[in-house]
Amino acid sequence: MLNDERGSLRSRSAAAVSSLTLRQIAAVLPSEQPWGVWMSRQIVARVMDTFGPSLTGTHVVAVDTRTSDGRRVVGEWVYGDGVQRDQSDTALYFVHGSGYALCSPRTHRRLTSWLSRLTGLPVFSVDYRLAPRHRFPSAANDVRSGWDWLIGDVGLSPERTIVAGDSAGGHLSVDLLLQPDVAHPAALVLLSPALDLTFTLARTRERLRHDPAIRSRDAVRLIELYCAGTDSNHPRLKLDVAAGRTLPPTLIQAGGAEMLAADAIALADHIRAAGGQCELQIWPDQVHVFQALPRISPEARPAMRHIAGFIAHALRNSRIDKAAG
Question: What is the pTM of this model?
Answer without folding.
Answer: 0.96
